[in-house]
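Researcher: Let's run the pair from yesterday's discussion. Sequence first, then tokens, for each.
Model: Starting with the first of the pair.
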Amino acid sequence: MQTRIINFMGLRNIAIGLTLLFTLVGLGSLAVKGLNFGLDFTGGALVELQYDQPAELDAIRGQLREAGYPDAVVQNFGATTDVVVRIQSEDASLGYEVAEALRKADTSKALEVKKVEFIGPQVGEELRDQGGIGMLLAMFGVMLYVVFRFQWKFAIGSLVTLLHDVIIVLGVFAFFGWTFDLTVLAAILAIIGYSLNDTIVVYDRVRENMRILRKADLIENINISTTQTLLRTTATSVSTLLAVLALLFFGGENLWGFAMALTIGVIVGTYSSVYVSSVFLIWANLTREDLIPPQVEEVDETP
């Protein structure tokens, strides 16, 4: 029984139009608004507190908002009575002010200040620079892998796809002003791996069908290859989204940015593996001859 072939490339002009629109919006958001870097990158005050009873993190966040610290990051560490509060600020004495504000907000619970630290902005700048270099190195390694595994047109297509996915995720975070911290950076690196995996599956089938479907042109080949890999792509995307959405809704505030970045990345990565990567092959005019390794002429050394 022959499988019905879906004409994905029949919508390629509309899809690329939307892709260019969202990419330009993402780049514009990054250029105009920029990323809202978290304490990991900007530096600030860190306060470790110990309560005499299990701490209610939501109540502490509400108390800090009322005290004028709406951007404070509150989380447990170790026991349920131990709390760490992180606030973006260049004032080293802010940590003691935060502790005093919490004491006044809830007198029914006794708390002790265990440690107050100030993370300088130079540490955050170093983390930001190293994270950016790590992301670029990951993309460069991906391109080298695809060059040796496939061919240079596939490599550039993979790199364009990865750049598209990263720009969209960063653009969304910049547009809405969501905090960009180390967990989100980790999600970006995970998205690079996820998107590459989807793209490689489609590219591998396109290359294989180039040798099998002799009479099919490139667009027909891409439609057939994408249809053949659709079930695998859908199963991977849905199963990944189920796990990520569980983190998004039940993982708490500390994992929200990580889960949101992965959610956007999985959706965008699935889309780009169908349209961005495949359409690039059409623009690059991939032919069957591109996949044939060049023949090395043997030199006759006999006198």
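Model: Moving on to the second of the pair.
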Amino acid sequence: MNTKKILLAATALAASLSATAAEDKTLVRYQSLDVQGVNVFYREAGSPQAPTVLLLHGFGASSYMFRDLMPKLAQKYHVIAPDLPGFGQTTVKPGVKFNYSFDNLTAVIDAFTVAKNLEHYAMYVFDYGAPVGWRLAVKNPEKITAIVTQNGNGYEEGLSEGWADMRKAWANPTAENREALRKFNTPDMLKWQYTEGVEDTSVIAPEPYQLAHAAIERIGVDAQMDLLLDYGSNVKQYKALHQFFRSKQPPVLAIWGDKDPFFLPAGAKAFQRDNPKAEVQFLNTGHFAIETHGNEIAAAMLEFLERSIKP
């Protein structure tokens, strides 16, 4: 074999190895970690040496909602998406008493980030993931490099009339008012939360809301009712969150389905009040914007993170 052929073969091999390495970055691994008596299931992709992005899901979902987003982000970032206690594949270990509150969800995820040695991370927060993320930011402001909030509310003006039953229960947590929250966990209601505000519902896959309901059936609806009842504590935390935004001015992208029946567009715009540099983008869709506009969200995130934390 002459020198030219050897060089061509070597170049082809190097290109092949480079392509394989690039593919490996997008490989998502599924693991679990024991944290404070909770077996936390999580998805992980990308190089651990790259900047970390922590993905926090919300009600009616799990880390499964990030199934398509993670490989896109993993090209440049270390991406981790845990299932919150009460959701997905995360389970409380036998014999452990766990009270389902947002303080306790946050305590588990905070300990999870420590166990995973996440010294600094950007956050993508959605729905319930937002109050968990806000508590993490207030407690550990030095760890937060950037925030993407996709229909993750942090201001009272973002709460729609859809919260009327919850507000009633927060003000007067009787057994009757608590029982009224059960309806939010039915199969039809879960599906409605995915499809409401979506122009073409044929693009909504059924598996996400079916899996969410299966998890509720497996774990128990009481956990979800406890969290709906406790959501009022998040509103009380808003003042500390706003102070965090004013004092730290982290890079923020609020990307919002503007037909969300629970979190209004006003809630997205409100981030600019305490953080004037916050960026706001609206999408013509509902609450689960990632299910209809996943490509747009991924592109916006990559562009935003590139400017914000420089991988």
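Researcher: Give me one sentence on the second I can quote.
Model: The CA atoms of residues 11 and 230 lie 60 Å apart.
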